[in-house]
Write a structure and sequence with these properties.
The chain is an alpha+beta fold. The chain has two domains: 172 residues, Jelly Rolls (Sandwich), CATH 2.60.120.10; 102 residues, Arc Repressor Mutant, subunit A, CATH 1.10.10.60. It is built from 13 helices and ten strands. A hairpin with a 2-residue loop joins strand 5 and strand 6. Helix 4 packs across helix 6, helix 7 runs parallel beside helix 10 and helix 8 packs across helix 9. The chain is globular and about 60 Å long.
């Protein structure tokens, strides 16, 4: 799967260099309507040879029907076995690693223009649940519900003489995401988390929201009403990485995605990530990634 990278709404320096929509238009097996939602079944995820992190400006749903796949969404590792669902939303950084030889799945790409029509209706809690839990195992009931949605969407798209096709698909998709929100809530509740794991998850959630501006462990400790030492100890025990390492990793991930996926200069990226200078950014990047930004780019 090629991922279409992010264009910032108010900063057109981030020019996309991987146009997934153009490649989708060329596929005969893709159903799409008004270049707003694309859906097709596939036996492979083609990453076009790109192993670096890619930033998206679309919502991508992958329904794993057979086999398994591995990757990361915003550094959250996933190894999903069928039947399962992964969802990434605009602004997240994707790293596809592999899928099994017997993989078979359904891919759905939704543009921001399409999802803006119902984001407000979904509500903040559902949107955040999906963003914080980008993959889930599917029971037979959940799988059949999602397959029914896919079948109806493709059927409506192919009804060429219906002038209300896009409106119908929009409402079907709202119902689809409401269903996913319910399944997520149920699976999270059933899964349960230890106290330490729960603290670590809350820490990582706050880091994902604030890493561009807040880089001190103390900030997150205050947010969670814990001491910095206790937070670092819990995060290390629960994840294998220190709190400081996680903060650095999120900053480095964003930097790598911007270096590879946009035409921003190193200075512009340093500004975007709130470094005091390009020199400070360069030293940070080399320390964490191992090479200077100009060589990585």
């Amino acid at each position: 799967m090629s991922f279409f990278v992010c264009r910032k709404e108010k900063d057109m320096r981030n020019i996309a260099i991987h146009n997934i929509y153009e490649s989708l238009k060329k596929r005969a097996d893709v159903d799409q309507i008004e270049q707003e939602i694309y859906i097709y079944e596939t036996t492979e995820i083609n990453h076009d040879g790109h192993s670096h992190p890619l930033k998206t400006d679309c919502t991508i749903c992958c329904i794993c029907l057979k086999g398994e796949m591995r990757g990361k969404i915003d550094l959250k590792e996933y190894h999903v076995k069928s039947p399962a669902l992964t969802i990434s939303v605009p602004g997240q950084v994707l790293e596809h690693e592999s899928c099994s030889d017997d993989f078979n799945g359904i891919l759905i790409f939704m543009t921001q223009r399409f999802t803006e029509k119902f984001n407000l209706l979904l509500g903040h809690s559902i949107s955040m649940s999906i963003k914080n839990h980008p993959y889930m195992a599917l029971g037979n009931e959940e799988l059949q519900s999602i397959l029914a949605y896919c079948h109806m969407v493709r059927k409506v798209i192919r009804t060429d003489d219906n002038p209300n096709r896009l409106q119908i698909i929009t409402h079907l998709t709202i119902a689809y995401f409401y269903g996913i929100g319910y399944f997520l809530h149920k699976s999270i509740k059933d899964e349960g988390l230890s106290k330490d794991r729960d603290i670590a998850e809350k820490f990582l959630q706050k880091v994902r929201q604030n890493y561009k501006t807040e880089r001190k462990v103390e900030y997150y400790a205050v947010q969670l009403q814990l001491s910095a030492n206790y937070l670092s100890h819990v995060v290390k025990d629960a994840t294998g990485k220190t709190a400081g390492e996680w903060i650095d990793d999120y900053i480095a991930l964003e930097a790598k995605a911007l270096l590879k996926s946009t035409n921003m200069t190193i200075q512009q990226i340093a500004d975007e990530l709130n470094f005091p200078s390009q020199s400070f950014f360069g030293k940070f990047f080399k320390r964490v990634v191992g090479v200077a930004p100009k060589y990585y780019k």
